[in-house]
């Protein structure tokens, strides 16, 4: 939304450009349009006027979406009525001194402004050029009008536009090979404000930054950008190979066939409708004519469909081959990494087999030791349990004999106990037997005998 102080001027393409509020003040604008006085007369006024025009030029370039301009262009665009700014030549000279702008010819020869090019320009080209200019103007009159058409590049605006292109367009279309017109459509799709005249300079800058690769085409002795390759990543090759060109041609043919098929479908439908229309009007000959035309179109449609199918098959096969190549490269890298790890760790078949054999022997020895220890412990425990049972049994029988019970497991280590007959009879007499028990039965048996 514009305020009351904003002025929207329709002036040679600046239909919606917002000039600063001072543009309304005739007295101030008269001072701004006048030529510069020497700076020591009024330093503050000189600097303020210089900053005003520098900012206005920057806003103008940003609004149009281009960084290239000439002195004559600025004079015409900033004309107020019939008054032309008379101070722009000083402003541009100051901007060039502050490295805000560069000559287009110098920029195209060295976009990155390398040290090598700077040395060549400073000590070779520029001195020769100045010498030639002095010699030229000493003979001929200085052509001020021709100099006003020399183009300059606003470096800050250039960097801003190129960064925006990289962020909005390049980052979302990695790995593509685009025609120049397709690239322009992408810029429009992403709502990029970029002037058509500046697009070549922008692409040249991006190529110098190794963000795109350009393929030029020459027609009528004029070279222009034909194809633009956006690398898939930073490590991808920037060269446009024959395979890239072949893929691009296939894709262009595919798109052309799709458009032709769409057009044929529309024509088939039109002829079919006309044939039906003439049938209703009982005009059989005209109806046959359109039916024949429809059949010819259908045959043409079928041929082009087959061609489209073949091209799509080729594109699919190429894509599969590229993917298979990527997988194979991954296999190679993985195998090499595994070999390196095995080599560094000393893992070999013989070494592993020896180690495993040692492990098996050690485990067998450990198992034997455990078996021996467990069996000895079990015998000792069984012997101790047997002694405790004998003692408990003796106490239940009421015996007072303190003799130790027999050790059934190790009799060789025990002294033999001898029991006399008198002792045995006494022990039998001490046993308590109920009536009708074994003693009476034995007596009866004896009597019967």
TrEMBL record:
The protein's name: Charged multivesicular body protein 7
Superkingdom to which the source organism belongs: Eukaryota
Coiled coil location: none
Pfam families the record matches: Snf7, WHD_CHMP7_1st
GO cellular component: cytoplasmic side of plasma membrane; ESCRT III complex; multivesicular body
Biological process annotations from GO: late endosome to vacuole transport via multivesicular body sorting pathway; vesicle budding from membrane
Family designation: Belongs to the SNF7 family.
InterPro entries to which the protein is assigned, alphabetical: Snf7_fam
């Amino acid at each position: 939304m514009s305020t009351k102080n904003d002025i929207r001027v329709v002036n040679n393409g600046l239909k919606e450009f917002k000039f600063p509020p001072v543009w309304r003040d005739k007295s101030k604008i008269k001072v701004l349009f006048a030529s510069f006085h020497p700076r020591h007369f009024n330093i503050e006024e000189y600097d303020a006027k210089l900053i005003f025009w520098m900012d206005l030029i920057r806003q103008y370039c940003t609004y149009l979406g281009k960084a290239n301009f000439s002195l004559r262009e600025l004079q015409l665009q900033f004309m107020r009525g019939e008054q032309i700014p008379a101070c722009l030549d000083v402003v541009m000279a100051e901007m060039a001194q502050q490295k805000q702008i560069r000559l287009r010819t110098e920029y195209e020869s060295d976009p990155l402004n390398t040290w090598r090019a700077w040395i060549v320009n400073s000590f070779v080209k520029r001195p020769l050029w100045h010498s030639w200019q002095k010699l030229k103007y000493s003979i001929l009159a200085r052509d001020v009008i021709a100099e006003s058409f020399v183009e300059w590049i606003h470096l800050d605006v250039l960097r801003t536009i190129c960064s925006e292109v990289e962020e909005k367009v390049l980052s979302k279309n990695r790995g593509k090979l685009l025609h120049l017109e397709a690239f322009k459509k992408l810029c429009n799709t992403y709502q990029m404000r970029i002037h058509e005249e500046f697009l070549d300079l922008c692409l040249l800058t991006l190529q110098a930054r190794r963000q795109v690769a350009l393929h030029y085409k020459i027609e009528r002795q004029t070279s222009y950008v034909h194809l633009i390759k956006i690398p898939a990543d930073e490590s991808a090759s920037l060269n446009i190979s024959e395979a890239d060109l072949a893929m691009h041609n296939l894709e262009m043919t595919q798109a052309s066939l799709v458009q032709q098929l769409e057009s044929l479908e529309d024509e088939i439908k039109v002829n079919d409708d006309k044939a039906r229309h003439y049938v209703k009007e009982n005009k059989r000959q005209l109806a046959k004519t359109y039916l024949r035309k429809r059949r010819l179109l259908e045959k043409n449609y079928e041929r082009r469909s087959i061609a489209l199918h073949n091209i799509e098959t080729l594109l699919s096969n190429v894509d599969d081959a590229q993917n298979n190549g990527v997988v194979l490269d991954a296999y190679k890298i993985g195998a090499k990494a595994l070999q390196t790890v095995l080599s560094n760790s000393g893992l070999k078949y013989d070494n592993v087999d020896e180690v495993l054999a040692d492990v098996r022997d050690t485990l067998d020895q450990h198992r034997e030791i455990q078996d021996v220890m467990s069996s000895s412990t079990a015998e000792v425990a069984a012997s101790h349990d047997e002694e405790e049972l004998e003692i408990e049994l003796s106490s239940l029988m009421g015996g007072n004999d303190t003799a130790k019970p027999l050790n059934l497991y190790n009799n060789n280590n025990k002294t033999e106990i001898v029991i006399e007959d008198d002792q045995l009879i006494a022990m039998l007499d001490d046993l308590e037997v109920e009536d009708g028990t074994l003693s009476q039965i034995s007596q009866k048996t004896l009597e019967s005998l």
